[in-house]
């Protein structure tokens, strides 16, 4: 019996696909879960954007043109940045262990999960754009498409980092959230997403200059208004690709050590 | 088949917990032949799960080696993984996944085509009685339902070797009996080799053909339940008489029949522990009759595996389990410590 039967061998591409489709299934089964997790960005859009518009002398459309690209990046920070908690829960309840005993390539276990993050990022971004539309927000469609690809690349990297944090903190949820929150908020504020950093102190501008989130936000602003040639776009791609590369590298290493 | 399905030589796992080296498993050497049903019996913290985690490639051994279904656990973990099924102590299904979806995903993980995975999932949903909750997500299931799904996931690819870590913990007696029926059917149908851990004596006693008793990281006995009981514990025979004088006379008569020590007990009775109690008892009654000593009561109590454990370790399984917990170094904690130290040994 054991000698005559064919047994599967790990295959990174096929395994990644299988992990990805498994991760997507609950999303497909219950798409409204994606809308539900939009609460935080919507609060910022509904309660923060009016304040910005007021400060800008009531120019709502102009304010949204500046603010909405940042909200799209915020979706990635808050949503994708927290995705590691799902893995952490699966590590604690046992299903992660089951996938480790399966003949799956270790890298696929991480990459498949990270790629899944593209789905909520794209769907949620489009929902935000549609919500902002009646208030005068206008977007270059080609720029939006490229902007979403950029956001997806950045999200895959950030998701991989979030999974790495889960793999490192194991069953210590407090540690996961402690580290996650203490990184997300400085990154958010120092990205110029909520308020421009131009009037901030020099040290803040210096930190923002090396904050990849800042570069992605600026690239999104340029892309969504159709300015493909802006240097910010180039730097946005460099930042997103660097985050993706580092995230996947660190994540795959962490998954290899997982048991 | 020439090669044993499990061949472990000197498997050892040491962890460092709070700067102290703890030997979770020491020099585990054994073979399992294809088709066997083996139970690892021992108290909590004895090293059962750590052993299983090494054999299933989850934990790299500190020393020693093992071949599982023809492949080395350290050199070709992927080949081992493809050939084994594993049901861990916790929940195998992911909380957000629906039962049927999770089974089909599992099939894909093991290289089954979508059609084959669907058919196999339908078969297991039927046979493990999962139909009433097949479209529910795992987080909505009861403990027993989750456990049935765990078993189904472990069986999805019909592995030649199935590892089960405490499969019946937390199940009610009815579900436990059902679970065992499935395991026995599986063996009957596919000749699957089953290797499980348990701290339930009755379970090891009733179902396993071979029991490996583990304590403090070492296998201290390895035989059939019947042989373990016969050699290590034996039946307790008690004979009661009308007068103390009768009991005194009876001691000599019975002692002539066995080399086991015969003890006087109570006012007018005697007792002895012997491996062949069911034959010795009627023989003793006849011999006493012939000697003119009237036997008033005769009982023979067969041993349990707890008696075996007591004979081997001087502690009952329950005491041993509680003692380990009091030390504050559960196996899970040691596993956690080990993985924290591990340096990319598992591919």
Description:
The complex is a heterodimer of chains A (259) and B (347). Chain A is elongated and about 75 Å long. Chain A has one domain (30-257). Helix content of chain A is 76%, strand content 0%. Chain A contains 13 helices and no strands. Chain A has helices at residues 12-29, 32-36, 39-55, 60-78, 84-93, 95-101, 106-116, 118-132, 141-169, 173-189, 202-209, 212-224, 231-257. Chain B is α/β, with parallel strands linked by helices and 347 residues long. Chain B folds into two domains: 6-229 and 309-341, 3-Layer(aba) Sandwich (Rossmann fold), CATH 3.40.50.300; 235-301, Alpha-Beta Plaits (2-Layer Sandwich). Chain B is built from 13 helices and 14 strands. Chain B has helices at residues 48-55, 77-83, 99-109, 114-127, 143-155, 173-190, 201-207, 225-233, 244-255, 277-290, 305-313, 317-326, 331-341; strands at 6-17, 20-32, 37-41, 63-68, 71-72, 84-87, 161-165, 193-198, 210-215, 218-223, 235-240, 263-265, 269-274, 297-301. In chain B, strands 6-7-8-3-9-10 form a six-stranded mixed beta sheet, sandwiched between helices. In chain B, strands 2-1-4-5 form a four-stranded antiparallel beta sheet. In chain B, a hairpin with a 2-residue loop joins β9 and β10. In chain B, α3 crosses α4 and α8 (225-233) crosses α11. Chain A binds chain B through residues 1-2, 5, 7-10, 15, 18, 21-22, 25-26, 29, 86, 89-90, 93-95, 97-104, 106, 170-171, 253, 256-259, and chain B through 1, 5, 34, 53, 56-59, 69-70, 78-79, 81-84, 86, 88-98, 101-102, 105-106, 108-111, 137-138, 153, 160, 191, 335-336, 339-340, 342-344, 346-347.
